[in-house]
Write a structure and sequence with these properties.
It is a single chain. By secondary structure, the chain is of the alpha/beta class. It is about 35% helix and about 20% strand. The chain has a 5-stranded mixed beta sheet. A two-stranded antiparallel ribbon has the order 1-2. Helix 2 links the parallel strand 3 (about 55-60) and strand 4 (about 85-90). Helix 2 (about 65-80) runs parallel beside helix 5 (about 155-160).
Length: about 160
């Protein structure tokens, strides 16, 4: 009986129970989730169909791979930042808002940062690691996913934006 109550309490605190689905893949319509920024303002992660596309990176201040990827993000932003939104989803594992703010002040990544304390966008996009990047076109379709420090985001965006 104790275990049943514990399980019920865990399920009740976890939010609605849904059937397990696969994470979205290239070609799927991107999930649209809302996550707060560092000041508590809601930010729509992904795009509304017919709007600008988006580059979404799941990152952390302690992620060495993310730091190594940053020059590629900066280069992609320099070429496409006027046509595509860049959103950095801080995964909040071993992170505080003050630590994230210090990182942003020191490194100036070219994305709008959201602070995903509940992991909503991570689950929605199937972000299995930091440095995970999703590129969504203006119609709301996922056109690229990848992880690691050597992703050529400029080339990936060229296939989405310059077509």
């Amino acid at each position: 009986m104790k275990h049943g109550l514990l399980l019920l309490a865990m399920i009740a605190g976890a939010g609605p129970v849904r059937a397990q689905t696969r994470p979205p893949v290239v070609g799927d319509i991107a999930p649209v989730v809302v996550v707060d920024d560092l000041d508590g303002h809601p930010v729509r992660v992904a795009v509304a169909p017919g709007k600008r596309g988006a580059v979404i990176e799941f990152w952390a201040t302690w992620c060495e791979v993310c730091a190594a990827l940053l020059p590629n993000v900066v280069a992609a932003h320099a070429k496409y930042g006027d046509r595509v939104d860049f959103i950095g989803v801080n995964v909040t594992v071993n992170e505080s808002k003050s630590r994230v703010r210090r990182y942003l002040e020191q490194h100036h990544p070219p994305f709008r940062t959201v602070y995903d304390t509940a992991g909503v966008s991570q689950r929605a996009f199937g972000a299995f690691t930091t440095s995970y990047v999703v590129i969504v076109d203006a119609s709301g379709r996922i056109r690229y996913t990848g992880s690691g420090s050597t992703q050529d985001l400029t080339a990936a965006l060229a296939k989405v934006v310059d077509k």
